[in-house]
Hints:
Blueprint: H1 2-21, H2 28-44, H3 49-62, H4 69-90, H5 95-115, H6 122-135, H7 141-161, H8 166-178, H9 187-200, H10 204-220, H11 224-237, H12 242-252, H13 257-262, H14 264-277
Helix pairs in contact: 2-4, 2-10, 3-4, 4-5, 4-6, 5-6, 6-7, 7-8, 8-9, 8-10, 9-10, 10-11
Amino acid sequence: MKSIKKVSCILTAVFLCSACFSLPALTESEENLIDQIMAFRISLAPLSNEEALSRAQEKRASDQPAPSEQGSIIADTFLALEEYNYLYEANQSDPRVKETIMPQIEKLDSFYEAHKNEELSPWFLCIYGDAISCSLQFLPTGTAMKRGLLIKKFYLQALEKAPDMVYANMNAGQWFIQAPAIGGGSKVKAAGYFDTAYKNARTPAEKYYSALLYSQSKYEAGETEECDRLLAEAEAVVPGSKYIENIRKVNAAGSSIYYYVVHRKEVDKKIARRDIGK
């Protein structure tokens, strides 16, 4: 009798522990919050770098936490990455670039370690992969190589949970188009992910970003007319986008934005020579 009670107590304890540490799915309000952050992101696109950075910092400082811990860290990481992007665009050597991304990575690492055996949201997996990608430049080579393998893993895990998720497809597409073939990269696979994202886009932000990213896949495939059409679609969503303006300059210099990310100095020189020749 005592042993039966003992087993019963153990099972009860396991069940209660599982219930206590089960990770709740994002609520509808948290999903809506992510949509609002995406809308905020595209609202910055027509602004100067300085003004966009200022607004991103203000929003991050003033935003209230989401109802759940997972929702809060997803929302805060999106805003941290927006701040990081504008800092990086202005000056890659600015110490604030590292100061913005590395503390966020520590938060994400801690959350992941605490919940990796639970049902993580596809949004968390995607934003974690994004943040890791941004942090690699600040890590020792060996560590960066090991951490870099997680990016693809997280994007594909997100797609296993949500195959039509626009953000996850865009991220997977970017990974496959930028990774070398010997490391698993594939422009054909990338195009498939971009196409899925583009066809499933529902919000203005999704339509803007999916068209932009797909346009550069088309550019690399030599389909320049289709590239121009997609850029025009994106510009119709966000007129005056500085990012589209920059992409057009990069394309006019003979490169895609994916090539530019890795060979920025080389392409910037070509753009400068074109500007001087005008």
